[in-house]
Amino acid sequence: MRAADVLRMAQPAPRAFAPALVFGLLGAVSAVALLGTSAYLIARAAEQPPILYLSIAIVGVRGFALARASFRYLDRLAAHSAAFRALATLRVAIYERLVPLAPAGLARTRRGDLLARLVGDVDELQNFPLRVVQPLVTSLLVAGLAVVGMWLLLPAAAVALAVALLLALVVGTVVHTAVSSRAERELAPLRGSFADETLDVISNLDVLTAFGAVDARLARLERSDARLTRSATRRAAGAGAAGAVLSLLAGLATVASLALGIAALTAAALAVAGSPVSDATTATAATVWGGAGVALGGAGLTGPVLAVLALLPIAVFEVFAAVPLAASAWRQVHASAARVASALPATL
User: Fold this and answer.
1) pLDDT at 285 exceeding the cut of 70
2) Residues 6+ positions from 188 with CB-CB distance below 8 Å
3) Per-residue pLDDT for 292 more than 80?
4) 128 DSSP assignment
5) What pLDDT does residue 209 have?
6) Which region holds residue 294: left if phi is over 0, alpha if psi is between -120 and 50, else beta?
7) Structure pTM?
8) Which of 37, 74, 136, 161 could link 60 by a cystine bridge, Cβ 3.0 to 4.6 Å?
9) CA dist list (Å): 299 to 60, 174, 254, 264, 328
10) In the structure, what pLDDT confidence band is assigned to residue 273 with cuts at 50, 70 and 90?
11) Topology of domain 3-179+244-342, CATH
């Protein structure tokens, strides 16, 4: 049996998993929209307009906050329900293939390692829909929608955001892979080895005690645990390195959007006021902080909108951070699927 066959059984049916994808997308969009609306509301309120002008933004903040929490709950509920149902079907299929082999056909796999495959590795397969498929679909769609939204406000800022997201996709994944890919592939075999050695010590404790070999076997068990701990530490280091790269790129995207927005406001203010270049500082201050709106390319670019441009990349990168983690989860899931597949026959 191939690892691809195991992964295919671990993935819920499209009809069962579609609600989770929809709820996840709506929750992520609500999170991005919440930060954007909040930024607009705070900046617009600083201009002290009549309260009626803030009513839509106030309702939007409340609505997106409730929507984010509600869709997040529905997303987790639907996704885990579909994943657990698929996992139950997978367990039955695995046992149906193992029963005809027992006991002679399973002699090549040690008991503890086989137990780790049937429990730990099969449990790891639930992360295929939960931490690989859904985060990738949601993150990429939200990133695309965010770039389109930024394009409607300021095309140059949209280009900067798209470049930053592309760099995050490439650099973040490469850094994560370079630091922890080997550790992620080793985790499942090391867990199996540790489980096998633990079961061996417990099962033969009386014999080991009689021959005075307990200390030697415990030392061997400690070395196995140390190898497992080192692999888990390297995996965490990879996640931290990828997170640092994404945080850096999110900051650069924010600075770029802010700089491009200020430049656009300055140029538009100078064009409207007919001021010379030497009056740029005065025109910019009047436009950004005084609340005067200017039309730019058919879209209203004002001080509050500038706040949205500056903070929107942060919200987008918070969602997009799941992409390198999805690549990490894929390596672990594939390693577990390969271990499960190697213990199963191709057919019953």
Assistant:
1) no
2) 116, 120, 121, 124, 332, 335, 336, 339
3) no
4) I
5) 87
6) beta
7) 0.82
8) 37
9) 20, 38, 20, 12, 41
10) low
11) ABC transporter transmembrane region fold (1.20.1560)
